[in-house]
Amino acid sequence: MTDEPTILLTNDDGIDSVGIRALYDALSPVGEVTAVAPADDRSAVGRSISTNVGVTEHELGYAIDGTPTDCVVAGMEVLLDDVDLVVAGCNDGANLGAYVLGRSGTVSAAVEATFFDVPAIAVSMYVPVRDDDKWEPLTEAPESYANATRATRYLVEQALESGVFEHADYLNVNAPLAVDGAATAPMEITTPSRVYEMGALKNGDEIELHDRIWEWMAEGTIPDPDGTDRRAVVEDRISVSPLTAPHTTERHEALDELAEEYERSE
Question: Which family does it belong to (predicted)?
Answer without folding.
Answer: Belongs to the SurE nucleotidase family.
